[in-house]
Specification:
The complex is a heterodimer of chains A (about 350) and B (about 130). By secondary structure, chain A is α/β, with parallel strands linked by helices. Chain A has 13 helices and ten strands. Chain B contains five helices and five strands, in the order βαβαβαβαβα. In chain B, helix 1 crosses helix 5 and helix 2 runs parallel beside helix 3. Classes of the chains: A alpha/beta (about 350), B alpha/beta (about 130).
């Protein structure tokens, strides 16, 4: 029987209320196979979860108790700053003894076409060093209409990897401009990657992507202009995190005190790297583990988990409530209200109020 | 909301560096609404099979212009099968002599395209093969 036929059988059973366990060869369930490290089962579950299918949701429910162990590292930044090359180097580092041979999963997101829904996912091109290593699993995914830099199911994919025992999960966002900041809600540690020559200091004080950085990376640091980029980023950081320092003002040295140097405060370090050569990677990896340690000590780890799972719960809840609303509200009544909004008889807020109260006026 | 997409791996095994054709096909499949994983030049059969597994693709498109198709294709087929991915369809584009075509088809290659093949035809064949 083909895979597709099985999917249909599964859906029919699900709709009829019959509980089905999905089995691969040897009568083990797909979920059990994933927990035992079967890569084919893992790939298939990832697809189901990405497609948000019934099987995918059922698998996630079974896998969820096994999650919560991985360190989620987000890598974001503009197009062409070298995110994929950096991810390649970081993953290689974690696989070597310096990184204690941790198992690494990579979720690389590239944009879907807004017109056709298709996508060319090309992040693997820069990750060829990682092939042939069973401790690494790379999965490309298309953004499928999401605008926050990651796809709607990216978080769910990381949960599958987490349950499958990957200790490090690196999420590479689409080439992000200024406001694609969803990654900060998902990852424990967010790296924002910049490259020399991409804008002046005013770019650096705008709100948005720089604010979410736990670690700033200036990649392509062998290019001219790296000092300017570093200076701009550093001055932005100092605006955000003023600490006690001595400045010279009209020829006099003056001590300036910012807010108390709080030990719970994490000041994002700036790292210079040349990803294609592997320069600066060990130092960057060290900063990443320092950040993880800082989060665990300061309670930030739990706080981030709570915020992330809370917002996921909210999203699922609103989807479920919407589905329930459409199930219980006659389509005719709904259409009538929409017509009244169209003719400006009702504002959208009044319309929702009347729909929720169960009448059409 | 369930959303199924056809996923295609476009890869160039072997040592020739002419990837224009592979890119044209990748772009055409993208415009047809498919998700195309592009792996770039000089892939070994092992790399291709590994990527096909991790990405859980429906179709693997191989671009081969080097003349090494009779060595590369069977190796890739064998690796996919031993990985439990015998359902994955393999398409080849490139310079394939007429006398090799029946042998490749017999091995299990789904479609073979030479110079001048239309992208519309490829798109149609991919959709049919995935079903």
């Amino acid at each position: 029987m083909s895979v597709r036929l099985w999917d249909e059988v599964y859906i029919l059973c699900y709709e009829a209320g019959i509980k089905v366990r999905i089995c691969s060869e040897g009568m083990m369930t797909l979920v059990d196979s994933v927990l035992e490290g079967d890569r084919l089962a893992l790939a298939r579950i990832l697809t189901q979860v990405e497609n948000n299918s019934l099987e995918g949701r059922a698998a996630l429910a079974e896998l969820f108790p096994h999650t919560g162990k991985a360190h989620l590292i987000g890598v974001t930044g503009g197009s062409g700053t070298g995110k994929s090359s950096l991810v390649n180097q970081l993953a290689s580092y974690y696989r070597k003894s310096g990184g204690l041979q941790k198992r690494v999963a990579i979720v690389a997101v590239d944009p879907s076409s807004p017109f056709t829904g298709g996508a060319v996912l090309g992040d693997r091109v820069r990750m060829r060093d990682l092939s042939g290593d069973n401790g690494v699993f790379i999965r490309s995914m298309a953004s499928r209409g999401s605008l926050g830099g990651i796809a709607q199911t990216t978080s769910a994919l990381t949960q599958v990897f987490d349950a499958a025992g990957f200790e490090i999960i690196i999420i590479e966002t689409v080439g992000a401009g200024q406001s694609e900041v969803d990654i900060a809600r998902l990852a424990h540690t967010t790296l924002v990657v910049e490259a020399p020559g991409l804008g002046d200091e005013i770019q650096a004080i705008k709100a948005g992507i720089l604010e979410i950085a736990d670690i700033l990376v200036i990649n392509k640091a062998d290019r001219p202009g790296v000092e300017n980029t570093e200076r701009a980023l550093r001055s932005t950081l100092e605006l955000a995190h003023p600490t006690k320092r001595v400045i010279r003002h009209h020829g006099r040295s003056m001590s300036v005190t910012g807010p108390a140097a709080d030990s719970t405060l994490w000041i994002p370090p700036i790292h210079k790297t040349v990803a294609t050569e592997g320069h600066g990677i060990a130092e960057l990896a060290e900063s990443i583990s320092k950040h993880a340690a800082h989060l665990r000590e300061s309670g930030g780890w739990e706080a981030r988990d709570r915020a992330r799972l809370g917002s996921e719960l909210e999203a699922v809840l609103s989807e479920a409530l919407k589905a329930r609303f459409h199930e219980t509200t006659p389509q005719k009544q709904y259409d009538e209200v929409v017509a009244k909004v169209l003719s400006r008889e009702l504002s959208p807020w009044e319309a929702v109020k009347s729909l929720l109260n169960g009448n059409s006026t | 909301m369930t959303e199924k997409k056809i996923r295609v791996l476009v890869a160039k095994p072997g040592l020739d560096g002419h990837d224009r054709g592979a890119k044209v096909v990748a772009r055409a499949l993208r415009d047809a609404g498919m998700e195309v994983i592009y792996t770039g030049l000089r892939q070994t059969p092992e790399m291709i099979a590994e990527a096909a597994l991790q990405e859980d693709v429906d179709v693997v498109g191989l671009s081969i212009l080097s003349g090494a198709h009779m060595a590369l294709a069977p190796r890739i087929l064998e690796l996919l099968r031993s990985n439990g991915q015998s359902h994955v369809k393999i398409f080849i584009g490139g310079i394939i002599p007429d006398e090799d075509m029946p042998h490749l088809k017999e091995m299990g290659i789904t479609h073979i395209y030479g110079p001048g093949a239309s992208t519309d035809e490829i798109i149609k064949d991919v959709r049919e093969a995935v079903g």
